[in-house]
């Protein structure tokens, strides 16, 4: 598992993660035209305002650094606006079982045959940061948490969506059990495939944010994130990390895999 830098009773350093995941060459998309296209589509789909266009008009569009600075500033403004509008008591829409997409659609920046294979018997979820009890949890301990089910829509930034039935434990319950500081700003996740993500504490404590152990009543398949993924129906799909191996709580802004490449961090729907 990826080590976490940790200091008792202090703000932890950002997880010591590589800038790019250690994946087979054909799965590395960071420099590809596909990723650049996705980044541009994401920005414009989330609403490039006339004000932002006016700001861009003052930049030399051939100066990528200048354009990126403007886009990052607009993204931060977008994040603050979404956080201000977020209602922690408002639930995402739910659906009947007849609406479930089956089979559920696979989506990742690598093929399903490249998804991590995790041994459930030896699996341990690690904790770091502003958490009182950092003892690792086994999959058996996680499964013993009270569980709930939801039928909600997964919305991908690429323009498609699918409805799934997700079963698992509320993230809030786990955070309470490990004595996490619920007044901290952020909860972060490290994944076995090199992915990493984070969310604001209000979103982490939302009643529909769960550790999903099952999809459509079946134990989560390896390609979908076994042993569990974070299911948060109030956010876009890239904010639902899979193959979780570590969780940390911090007041230091943690970023995320796609967010560090230009996506809006809050990622709300």
Write the layout of secondary structure elements.
Elements: H1 33-45, H2 50-57, H3 64-85, E1 124-129, E2 137-138, H4 139-143, E3 148-155, E4 161-170, H5 171-177, E5 186-191, E6 196-200, H6 201-204, E7 210-215, E8 218-219, E9 229-231, E10 244-250
Parallel strand pairs: 1-10
Antiparallel strand pairs: 1-2, 3-4, 4-7, 5-6, 5-10, 7-8, 7-9
What does this structure look like?
By secondary structure, the protein is α+β, with helices and mostly antiparallel strands. 22% of the residues lie in helices and 20% in strands. It folds into two domains: 31-85, no CATH class; 89-261, Sulfite Oxidase, Chain A, domain 2, CATH 3.90.420. The protein has helices spanning 33-45, 50-57, 64-85, 139-143, 171-177, 201-204; strands spanning 124-129, 137-138, 148-155, 161-170, 186-191, 196-200, 210-215, 218-219, 229-231, 244-250. A five-stranded mixed β-sheet has the order 2-1-10-5-6. β7 and β8 (218-219) form a beta hairpin.
The CATH architecture of the largest domain: Alpha-Beta Complex
String of helices and strands = HHHEEHEEHEEHEEEE
The mean pLDDT is 81
Instruction: Give the CATH class of the largest domain.
Output: Alpha Beta
Low-confidence stretches: 1-56
Beta-strand segment tally: 10
- In whole angstroms, the N-to-C terminal distance is 31 Å
Structural descriptors:
269 residues, alpha+beta, Sulfite Oxidase, Chain A, domain 2, 2 domains, 5-stranded antiparallel β-sheet, 10 strands, globular
């Amino acid at each position: 598992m990826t080590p976490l830098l940790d200091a008792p009773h202090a703000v932890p350093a950002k997880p010591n993660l590589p800038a790019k995941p250690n994946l087979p060459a054909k799965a590395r998309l960071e420099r590809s035209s596909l990723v650049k296209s996705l980044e541009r589509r994401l920005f414009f789909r989330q609403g490039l305002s006339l004000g932002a266009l006016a700001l861009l008009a003052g930049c030399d569009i051939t100066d990528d650094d200048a354009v990126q600075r403007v886009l990052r500033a607009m993204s931060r403004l977008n994040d603050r606006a979404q956080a201000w509008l977020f209602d922690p008591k408002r639930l995402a829409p739910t659906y009947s079982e007849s609406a479930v997409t089956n089979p559920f659609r696979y989506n990742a920046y690598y093929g399903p045959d490249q998804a991590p294979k995790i041994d459930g018997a030896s699996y341990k979820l690690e904790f770091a940061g502003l958490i009182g009890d950092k003892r690792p949890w086994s999959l058996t301990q996680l499964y013993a948490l009270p569980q709930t089910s939801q039928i909600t829509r997964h919305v991908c930034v690429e323009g498609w969506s699918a409805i799934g039935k997700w079963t698992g434990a509320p993230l809030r319950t786990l955070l309470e059990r490990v004595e996490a500081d619920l007044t901290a700003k952020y909860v972060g996740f490290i994944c076995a495939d090199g992915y990493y993500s984070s969310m604001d504490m209000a979103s982490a404590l939302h009643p529909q944010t769960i550790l999903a152990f099952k999809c459509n009543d079946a134990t989560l398949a390896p390609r979908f994130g076994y042993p569990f993924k974070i299911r948060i129906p109030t956010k876009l799909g890239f904010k639902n990390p899979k193959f979780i191996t570590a969780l940390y709580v911090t007041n230091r802004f943690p970023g995320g895999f796609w967010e560090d490449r230009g996506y809006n961090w809050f990622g709300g729907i």
